[in-house]
Model the fold of this input.
Amino acid sequence: MHVTPWTTIKRIFRTGFLNFWRNGFVTLSSILMMTITLFTLGLVVFSGVVLNTTLQSLRDKADINIYFTTSAPEDQILALQNTLQARPDVAQVVYTSSDAELAAFRDRHQNDQLTLQALDELGGNPLGAVLTVKAKDLTQYDAIAQFLEQQQSVGGGGSGSGSGSASSPIIDKVNYFDAAHRAAIDKLQSITDSAERIGLVIIIILSLVTVAISFNTVRLAIYTSRDEIAVMQLVGAGRNYIRAPFMVEAIMYGLFAGLFTLVLYYPITYWLGQQTASFFGDLNVFAYYMGHFFFFFVVIVGTGVVLGAIASFLAVRRYLKI
Amino acid sequence: MIYFDKVTKLYGNSAALEDINFSIEPGEFISIVGHSGAGKTTLMKMLLAEERPTSGDVYFQSANIHDVSRATLNQIRRRIGTIFQDFRLLPYKTAYENIAFAMEAAGRTDEEIYSDVPHVLELVDLGDKLNHFPHQLSGGEQQRVAIARAIVNQPDVIMADEPTGNLDPVNTFEVIQILKKVNDLGTTVILTTHNKGVIDSLKKRVITMDRGRIIRDDKEGMYVL
Ligand SMILES: Nc1ncnc2c1ncn2[C@@H]1O[C@H](COP(=O)(O)OP(=O)(O)OP(=O)(O)O)[C@@H](O)[C@H]1O
Ligand SMILES: [Mg+2]
Done:
């Protein structure tokens, strides 16, 4: 007929807005339920981030130290550093010269006159240089250690953590071969892995619950209109024309609930950020929230809108008879 | 134009309609009478395809309405203006919006809606209750909104199920006058009523039902029960 699509869209939005506004109680309780839902979703995201940073900082604590003999020439050490650095599984290699080691040792024992005196009496520098190797992933330490073992036997001609006798090996000791150090890394790996698994399971469960709650909320809101939907069909209104205003309404629930949730998180993360900055290591939740606000906006408001749209689409379909 | 072919409708084991056969010509004014529970409303539900018959077919202009596409059924429903016995107004819409919705569903333009809705509400004497919600209207007023909604699209058929049940004699007379007038303009009218006076004064075709069956079909019938 002569009704333009633009007129139809205008009518759909007008009806959607009107219903949103008029069904005050239903609207308010729906928004409240959706807010709880989206708030939970926010918690899931935040916990994910906190868990991730915590695990990451734990993982970062792992490393391998290569202790060199005092006689090891610096150019060979630096050559080994370059070789290691070139490996794809190595994230970082830090070189600490024997002088720097000594300075650090003196620093650590600055209140311990006895030790310092003994050091002075020894004369010269009894400490060798150190390379600290960090792998990109916890699982890669084994391969790196194996590689070092080869280096050691090539340079030292045998004897695992050799104390240097044959042809002056440059590596004095690799701490990864200490049973205790190795066990610590393995343990760290199993803890972080299971934490990650448990976290993932919780995230999935919470997300599913969240989706179920918001679907039910929207369905209840539309349930009150089931007779209305039946009458609309009897006067010959098309399915989409009946459905669209309900979708507009539910999308608005999601939109408002999302915005409301974002506002709620402002004081909450601010407070949490002050309370817990030390606990979470470098992570300040408030700074994170502000820094990733666009991300949170898209995730929370976007989820609200999409859930509202899908839930209302399905809910109206239940009450459409033809 | 409308043809019922051996229509039976069972609810559980009891038959609300049993072997109904009759046809309605374009432009007819046909009244259906019968005791409460005789099956009058069920008959109308069959014609609007609100429910399916247990057996038999219902044709609207050669289309089997229980066997047409969704779009076709919507088209047919837009050509049948129904006054439901229980009104069935949209509770969250005002009187104005209830009628406007039926016009929107039928694809009317905004201009037509702006001019026709107040006019038709004026016709049923509700010009001053445009913005009342159904729950703010009396039973008779709701019934008149339902009447306005049924006639506003100038449908081919008007199905009026007990349209004067809640009206006083003056309003009843006016509503019947409206139905007669639209019938004079060519609209087919199907009326059910328990009002003997209305039937007897109409002097039109009367179908009498009893326990789901048609027991009389008189050209210029009277209310005989
Ligand atoms: N949905 C239903 N489920 C079961 N039985 C029904 C249903 N609808 C109607 N009936 C039965 O079908 C029979 C006919 O009902 P109908 O509403 O058609 O009567 P009616 O002639 O319109 O009566 P009234 O004059 O009181 O409006 C009644 O016995 C009723 O109890
Ligand atoms: Mg009835």
Summary: Residues 5-59+188-319 of chain A form one domain. Chain A has a mean pLDDT of 85. The first strand of chain A starts at residue 64 and ends at 68. The radius of gyration of chain A is 32 Å.
